[in-house]
Design brief:
Metallo-beta-lactamase, Chain A, alpha/beta, seven-stranded mixed β-sheet, 25% strand, disordered C terminus
């Protein structure tokens, strides 16, 4: 039976990284942790770091892309990114390992298909990613200031969703950040608040959604309690398992597959 294995290795302003594999394809979506720390977390989660084949970048900010060059040079992995990300990336991989993606154009890598989805953020050509083996599907949606209709339409019928809930609006407004930064975070090209994330979750919720991971929580402007409260109000009677990604450690891997009655591994 075909299946997809997913593990959130870390999420937050200090580094974002998610493992996804299907068949012989083993990929990272974002690589904002140092390579040594990525390796350590993969070993902790029981993932074959040395068998990594691909990296997909959502955008060029260091907490999402800092290890792209070294992973390519050390492991020979292919790195996928939009033209806008390539133009801005500080440490790009060798040209032979660079692969350019564009929104809504699927990339087929063996059993795994990865589809970039355009999102609004304050960089050139940022994307979220949807991934599938043809039977099960998931998506990583972080670093966006709002959720326009084309985005939530692209996220329908997921089995797993990794979703940004960056800040509690009141904590942000009353917090220590300068007003210019607060305005950027709150803007349509900034980051999703708990309320905005909950609204997007409500848009894509369906009976088959089995895993929801809240991601990219601000250390200064949010708490796990605030984010959970917003998501739980939407999920209510849903059977989806809810958890919050950590900046400090990986979550336990989960396996999603067709008509699977229960998960093979639990989130921590």
């Amino acid at each position: 039976m075909r299946s997809v294995r997913v593990c959130v290795l870390g999420s937050g302003s200090s580094g974002n990284c998610l493992w996804v594999e299907a068949g012989e394809t083993r990929a990272l979506i974002d690589c904002g942790l140092p390579m040594r720390e990525t390796r350590r977390r993969c070993l902790e989660a029981g993932l074959p770091f040395k068998e990594l084949t691909d990296v997909f970048l959502t955008h060029e900010h260091a907490d999402h892309s800092s290890a792209a060059g070294i992973l390519a040079r050390k492991l020979g992995v292919r790195v996928h990114a939009t033209r806008g990300t390539w133009r801005a990336l500080r440490d790009p991989p060798p040209p032979s390992l660079r692969h350019t993606v564009r929104a809504d154009a699927p990339i087929e890598l063996g059993d795994l298909t990865v589809t970039p989805i355009a999102i609004p953020h304050d960089v050139d050509e940022p994307v979220a990613y949807r991934f599938s083996d043809g039977s099960a599907s998931g998506a990583v949606v972080t670093d966006l200031g709002c959720a326009p209709p084309p985005l939530w339409r692209a996220l329908r019928r997921l089995d797993l969703l990794v979703l940004e809930m960056n800040h509690d609006l009141r904590m942000l407004v009353e917090g220590p950040y300068p007003w210019s930064l607060k305005r950027r975070i709150r803007g349509d090209h900034g980051h999703l608040s708990n309320e905005q994330g909950a609204k997007l979750l409500a848009r894509v919720l369906h009976d088959g959604l089995r895993h929801v991971v809240l991601a990219h929580l601000s250390e200064h402007n949010n708490t796990e309690k605030h984010a959970r409260h917003a998501a739980e109000a939407v999920l209510d009677r849903s059977k989806a398992r809810l958890c919050v990604a950590s900046q400090a450690r990986p979550l336990d891997p989960v396996v999603i597959g067709p008509h699977r009655p229960r998960q093979l591994a639990l989130f921590a």
